[in-house]
Amino acid sequence: MLPSLYRSADFLFQRATLISMILIAAIACSVNAIAQTDPLPSWNDTSAKKAIVEFVERVTKEGSPDFVKPDDRFATFDNDGTLWVEQPNYTQVVFAIDEVIAKAPQHPEWRDTEPFKAILAHDREAMLKFSIQDFEKVVAVTHSGMSVQQFQEIVKKWLAEAKHPRFKRPYTECVYQPMLELMHYLRANGFKTYIVTGGGQEFVRAFAGPTYGVFPEHVVGSMGKVKYQYDKNGNPELIKLPEVLLIDDKTGKPEGINMVIGRRPQAAFGNSTGDQQMLEYTGAGAGARLMMLVHHDDAEREYAYGADSKIGTFSDALMDEAKKKGWVIISMKNDWKIIFPPEK
User: Fold this and answer.
1) Residue 22's domain spans which residues?
2) What is the pLDDT of residue 36?
């Protein structure tokens, strides 16, 4: 609001200001009207966008044979490669590497001990060959031994400072604008949106709210065990342990959905073989269903990778199953007008 309206009694000035305010309001109404007409403005008018709109209309129109009550509308989204960039390495892996490097001065023995030796030497080839046991060692020193709240604060601080090596933007800005619009569109039509990720549950919960508009309790991820105890002041807390409760990937995704949500979703969105079972589980339900896979085929604006990539693998078998079952393939190159939100 312009403070001049309160300071000046000049009639002409007030009149001019009032006219300006009316014009601004009219423009805002026009923008809102356009947004309401096209709830997915960053999507090209291709079959992928039409599939989304048609699905939502079918399940939200009362009297439709596919109508779903608002309380029963659920949609699940993978995170890495579906909602934000996963190349050239998973963001949580980058976080863990940075944490190892930050803690290294207190652990000189790491320079001669794998897997820490490879991390400190920035040996990417060696890191790509890490076994599950290697990752468990890294997780043990970077993701455990502190309270859940302390861990999330560490993650938030790192995300506030770290930037993607190619795009030079915070990782939380390397999110896909079309997918943000899709999540908003579904929520506006009564859907509860969940993130179902192979990444760490507490890691994603640290940023899911401000980044995606997803509540912490709506994040289902790989889970580590926690231990209830009291801090030095006698306050109860949950301490993260270096023990796995659930790997929320592949068959673990439907298991995690059942464990946390307890309902089969009507729509599921992924981008890799790690999401295959989640889409199968979603599609096995009755009524209208929407299963979509983001295909990274835009090397110019993001990355192009598929069956040969060790990160976000989109196998030929997955493509064949998608075509056979009528899953919708989202082409970044052809279906999206833009990739990322405007820079802040």
Assistant:
1) 4-34
2) 58
Domain CATH number, residue 206: 3.40.50.1000
Closest to 200 in 3D by CA, of 222, 233, 168: 222
Q: What is the pLDDT of residues 54-67, one digit of tens each?
A: 999 999 999 999 99
Asked whether residue 280 carries a pLDDT value surpassing 70, the answer given is yes
Instruction: Examine residue 145 and state whether it is found in any structural domain, yes or no.
Output: no
In eight-state DSSP terms, residue 286 is: S
Cα–Cα distance between 323 and 314 in angstroms, integer?
13
For residues 152 and 95, the answer to whether their CB atoms sit within 8 Å is no
Helix ranges restricted to H, 121-246: 124-128, 132-142, 148-161, 177-188, 201-205, 208-212
Per-residue pLDDT, averaged over 35-46, amounts to: 89
Contact 40, 185 (CB under 8 A): yes
Q: Is residue 258 part of a domain?
A: yes
Distance CA 270, CA 274 (A): 8
Spatial separation of the C-alpha atoms in residues 142 and 306, rounded to whole Å: 30
Long-range contacts, stretch 277-284, CB < 8 angstroms, 24+ apart: 277/250, 277/251, 277/253, 278/76, 278/78, 278/196, 278/253, 278/254, 279/327, 280/254, 281/253, 281/254, 281/257, 282/76, 283/325, 283/327
